[in-house]
Design brief:
mainly alpha; 2 strands
């Protein structure tokens, strides 16, 4: 393996590690981070579009990446007039595409020529 390929793989691994979110986040902090009112977050939860992680009975906690997912779903809902379910589904698909593209970049050689 060439030095360039090892450097590219190492850089991709560092980027993936740097983007890790906290393990869980409380509802109020989630709403603030997503730029949404807490009632909107509760609505997503009521509809089953966002599931809290197991935690204490007094406060709901959510996955660390939930703010990013909620903000994206909110923008999709607003900009494309999607339903709550459609917005979250599209958001999850886009997140999966981002993840797969990042994994693919590790294995593909860089494309140095411009089209």
């Amino acid at each position: 393996m060439s030095t360039r390929n090892r450097t590219t793989q190492r850089a991709a691994l560092v980027l993936v590690r740097a983007r890790r979110e906290p393990a869980s986040i409380e509802l109020e902090a989630l709403a603030r981070d997503a730029g949404l009112h807490p009632d909107v977050v509760r609505r997503f939860v009521e509809l089953g579009l966002l599931e809290p992680v197991p935690g204490t009975a007094t406060s709901l906690r959510f996955p660390g990446d939930a703010a990013t997912r909620l903000a994206r779903a909110s923008r999709l809902r607003r900009d494309l007039s999607l339903s709550y379910a459609g917005a979250l589904f599209a958001s999850e698909l886009l997140a999966r595409i981002d993840e797969l593209e990042a994994r693919l970049r590790v294995y593909e050689p860089p494309n140095d020529h411009v089209r």
